[in-house]
Amino acid sequence: MRVLVIEDEVRLAATLQDLLELNGYTADVRHDGESGLDDALTGIYDVVLLDVMLPKLDGFTVLRRLREAGNAVPVLMLTARSEVSDKVEGLDRGADYYLTKPFDPKELLACIRALTRRQPELRDPDALEFGGVRLDKGSFTLSCGEKSVRLSRKEFDICELLMRNRNLVLTKESLLLKIWGYESDAEDNNVEVYISFLRKKLAHIGAKVRIRTIRMVGYCLEEES
Questions:
Q1: How many CB atoms lie within 10 A of CB 51?
Q2: Which of 118, 51, 117 is nearest to 90 (CA)?
Q3: Which of 89, 92, 143, 223 is the most buried (most CB within 10 A)?
Q4: Three-state SS for 109?
Q5: How far, in Å, CA of 4 to CA of 154, rounded?
Q6: How sure is the predictor about 204, in pLDDT bands with cuts at 50, 70 and 90?
Q7: 9-49, pLDDT tens digit by residue?
Q8: What contacts 24+ positions apart, CB below 8 Å, involve 158-164?
């Protein structure tokens, strides 16, 4: 899962990024409301951690514009302001939860898990299964019957995304943004290479699912007929 942290305190933002990545999330950081809003509007994030007091655009404005654009990404607001009126304003503008600084890292992680559980496609079981193929998060293995193979982090992330969106077409652009991130210089060829790796590993374990190429569009994970 990819998390966007919009926080102007550089040291805190770095701490949050480290915490998230140590717990299996991919995290990007922005230090002002304007660039944070631009990134949030891309739609590649599963959760946004949003500070209230930000340069250029404050957190309330970022949240309002995000919701006006029809973006329903879960937003967890972070602030040093503990007044009830501030919390009410944030929740009324579309925030999903509100944490007052300083907060316990365990509470922050619990809040993120709670927010993602509300969305069925983001629920985080230990393993995903489709067409007799099992993707295990704990061991980064892909298995079918008694055969299994270990995946690299990029292979795992792409396979997870395909399995969560089974039978749906994922564009190369969406894979690039979701897996490599907004500022990466990765190109279509990077996606093609990792798709090729995954196809070989699916064949190696005798899987009855395949990654189908939709010409000029993207990829779809489906069961073989």
A1: 24
A2: 51
A3: 143
A4: helix
A5: 19
A6: very high
A7: 999 999 999 999 898 888 999 999 999 999 888 878 889 99
A8: 158/191, 158/194, 158/195, 158/198, 159/135, 159/198, 160/128, 160/135, 162/211, 162/219, 162/220, 162/221, 163/128, 163/130, 163/133, 163/135, 163/221, 164/121, 164/122, 164/128
Residue that has been written with the tokens 């559980």 in this structure: 117
Type of residue numbered 141: T
Type of residue at 75: V
Tokens of 191: 């996606």
> What are the CB-based long-range contacts (under 8 Å, 24+) for 177-183?
177/42, 177/44, 178/2, 178/44, 179/154, 181/2, 181/26, 181/28, 181/44, 182/28, 182/39, 182/42, 182/44, 183/28
